[in-house]
Amino acid sequence: MVLHPFYKTINNIFNETEHAFEGLTGQRRIGNILVLLFIGGLAGIQANLFGLLPPALAAITPTNHLEAIDLVFTVLLAFEALGLLFSMAYSVSISVGKQVEILSLVLLRNIFKQISHIQEPVVWNDISPIVIDIAALASAALTIFIILHFYYRQIEPKILNDDDDETALFIITKKVIAILMMISFVALLSFNGWNSLFYGHHNTTFESFFTLLIFSDILIMLISMRYGSSYRVAFRNSGFAVATLMIRIALITPPLYSAIIGVVSALFILGIRFAYNKYIPSGYQQRREDLRRKKCPNQCTPSQEETP
């Protein structure tokens, strides 16, 4: 397929960005950043406790060492979100699986966020009110991890359309959406991070990000109708959009409800994937889908059109 220069540029930008983050060198850089950030966070907190920081810097530096864990988890989630956007260009099923992966990491991060509000050293009287929330979040994260094991085993790579040109164009279209989502995510992360650091606002980056994902999922679903409009595919993609909505709700609910909704959303995508694989179109449905894919109207025979 000969690509239009615009599509070729988009394709190159996406591929180079993906390699920079997902390649071996990129993963090592990300690992180094996380290690340095964690050690630097602990050192900064300790320096603040000793009164060694300038007043302006001390005002925005926490005094609880557990805040360093919350910080490094947040940055890890940011990198995982970028990985999700890369997967969006290739597989809707993998993309929604990555969304649930991020949710499980958010649940684990929320455990440390709960504890970070407790003064050190941690004592039972301080932590006892949130033990149930911590247990619920930890159990939900583990359950989701197990569910994802079975979910990914249900996925078999399949080509959406036999037309290679159309398949390539659809992938590039999804890459354009993914790049726009990356730009939006970086803008959200910068804006919310600034407001959280200097103005004490609640950081809503991932809540806003999943709201954007709902719209992008629906957009990709609608675009995919151009390449294959079977009921089975439409139901699967629509169901995945609903799962994204459930994840979005899980991010804004209290810990116990967040854990329950998170597990339900993971079970929901597993059920959709299992049903999708087992669903067998009737002969009539298959013929209708084959007719939609034919480019020449003369290829459609009246008998096929009228088969009950």
Structural summary, described in words:
This protein has helices spanning 5-22, 24-49, 55-59, 66-88, 92-116, 124-127, 131-153, 164-199, 205-224, 231-250, 255-278, 283-293, 302-305. The longest helix is centred in the middle third of the chain and has 36 residues, at 164-199. The chain has one domain (13-281). It is mainly α and 308 residues long. The model is unreliable at 299-308 (pLDDT under 50).
Helix content: over 70%
What is the makeup of the main sheet?
Answer: none
**Number of alpha- plus pi-helical segments:** 13
Q: Care to count the β-strands?
A: 0
* Structural domain count: 1
Q: How confident overall, as mean pLDDT? A: 86
Structural class: mainly alpha
List key phrases describing it.
308 residues, mainly alpha, globular
Task: Please outline the helices and strands.
Elements (H helix, E strand, L loop, with lengths): L4 H18 L1 H26 L5 H5 L6 H23 L3 H25 L7 H4 L3 H23 L10 H36 L5 H20 L6 H20 L4 H24 L4 H11 L8 H4 L3
Helix pairs in contact: 1-2, 1-4, 1-8, 2-4, 4-5, 4-8, 5-7, 5-10, 5-11, 7-11, 8-9, 9-10, 10-11
Task: Describe the structure concisely for a colleague.
The protein contains 13 helices and no strands. The chain has 308 residues and is mainly α.
